[in-house]
Amino acid sequence: MECIFCKIVNKKLPSEIVYEDDEILAFKDINPKAPVHILIVPKKHIRSMNELKKEDKDLIGSLFLIAKSMAEKTEINKTGYKLCFNVGKGAGQMVDHLHLHLLGGWTEGITKHNI
Ligand code: 5GP
Ligand code: ZN
Which ligand 1 atom sits nearest the alpha carbon of residue 31? Predict the structure, then answer.
């Protein structure tokens, strides 16, 4: 059975898509933990960073480059942002399909934000 992010990737579930190419989809988090909260997701189902293979090297690089580009597009590059992979239940991973969190847009200055 497809996981929830595979369903989003395959457009069986709606999402607010902000970027798409052949390998990657980026969409807004449904329950944002920051003023800007985007999930950058490989279309290929990889359960977590623990399952990452050497052959995924370019894909993981692309996730970061798209994150950078989304940070520029939303202008959070000017105020600061976080990039995060939660790996495993103990770290708060709820969806077992690899996703890079891009979080930013805080206005209150230097604060520590956790997700
Ligand atoms: P995790 O806790 O696995 O690192 O992050 C999963 C993220 O996916 C959470 O921030 C959660 O709000 C988001 N999320 C879960 N289900 C959906 C959904 O159906 N649509 C969207 N857009 N985000 C989702
Ligand atoms: Zn999946």
Answer: 12
Ligand 1 within 6 A of CB of 9 = no
What whole-number distance in Å separates Cα of residue 88 and Cα of residue 92?
7
pTM, 2 dp: 0.96
Task: For strands 24-28 and 81-84, give the pairing.
Answer: unpaired
What is the rounded distance in angstroms from the CA atom of residue 62 to the CA atom of residue 115? Answer: 23
List, as one string, the DSSP characters of the chain: ---HHHHHHTTSS---EEEE-SSEEEEE-SS-SSSEEEEEEESS----GGG--GGGHHHHHHHHHHHHHHHHHTTTTTT-EEEE---SGGGT--SSS--EEEEE---SSS-----
What tens digit of pLDDT does each residue of 2-24 get?
A: 999 999 999 999 999 999 999 99
